Amino acid sequence: MQERGTEPRNQNKIRHVHRRKKTEPVIDVIESVLSSFSFNWSNVPRRSRTKRKRELKGNDALPGPKEELLRPKEALPRPKGKLDSGVFDDYLKKIWKNFSEEKKRPFAYLDSLWFSLYRSFSSKDKVLSWIKKEHIFSKSYVFVPIVCWGHWSLLILCHFGESSESTTRSRCMLLLDSLEIANPRRLEPEIRKFVQDIYKAEDRPETKRLVSQIPLLVPKVPQQRDGNECGFFVLYFINLFLDLAPENFSLKEHPYFMKKDWFTSEDLDRFYERLDLLN
């Protein structure tokens, strides 16, 4: 878990392993799914956004220096393209900083590039060593941002430090994806291998068979309106889950608040506007 006000750890390692700038844009997911799914984004209705107009009269048109400092910062328009990993991490740090230490104590999150780096054979051992330093088994929930095939989704590891026989806390995985047509479950084999290797790196007794029995749940969550919103959806998933997650996650109560009507597109727009105003 990254500390507030500090740069993400292992940046030099990530750059060395990845041999690219961290802010390199991810590839558009549409190119990877259109070949398998007959879906046309042009048919998806998009809500038009009105431009805010500001009327300036007389002396108010040119504010003095003091007035300029006192004026609230205006939200920037949402970037037109897909979020790259650098911008995503900057926004995630803002979200994390906005919650109290007590509120986020049961949570942790991994760097947004770690899962992608883990998929590379040459980087796998390094990533597992970095995760080991995060002590994720002491946390109730661990956010794992995933960017694969140019698409963002969110894996949440729930109660991984608990015994599989616990009756009050269900050890499980949640996969939240705003693009259901991309078939989120195609990630399941890699996710289970990822989890198995984490257990192995921590010298825990969980076997491959036990890992295969950990439920992977894919709730029906709100869906994105175009091919570029997935990163913002993941950030909003994290923000809302931090605020609403139960102390003890139970399979009997699933899906809790994670439903198709969890939030509206207007809620997402307001979230982005507030997010850009955070320090």
Report on the architecture of this protein.
This protein is 35% helix and 9% strand. It has a five-stranded mixed sheet. It has helices spanning 11-18, 29-33, 65-70, 85-98, 101-104, 114-118, 124-132, 188-201, 208-212, 230-244, 265-277, and strands at 107-109, 141-148, 151-158, 172-176, 216-217. The model is unreliable at 1-73 (pLDDT under 50). The longest helix has 15 residues, at 230-244. It has one domain: Adenoviral Proteinase, Chain A (Adenoviral Proteinase, Chain, 3-Layer(aba) Sandwich), CATH 3.40.395. The protein has 279 residues and is α/β, with parallel strands linked by helices.
What name does CATH use for the topology? Adenoviral Proteinase, Chain
Count of DSSP H/I helices: 11
Which oligomeric state applies? single chain
Order of strands across the main sheet? 1-2-3-4-5
Amount of beta strand = 5-15%
Order of secondary-structure elements: HHHHHEHHEEEHHEHH
Which residue ranges are poorly predicted, with pLDDT under 50 across at least 5 consecutive positions? 1-73
Q: Going by CATH, what is the homologous superfamily?
A: Adenoviral Proteinase, Chain A
**What is the CA–CA distance across the termini?**
19 Å
The CATH class: Alpha Beta
GO molecular function: cysteine-type peptidase activity
Family: Belongs to the peptidase C48 family.
Protein name: Ubiquitin-like protease family profile domain-containing protein
InterPro entries: Papain-like_cys_pep_sf, Peptidase_C48_C
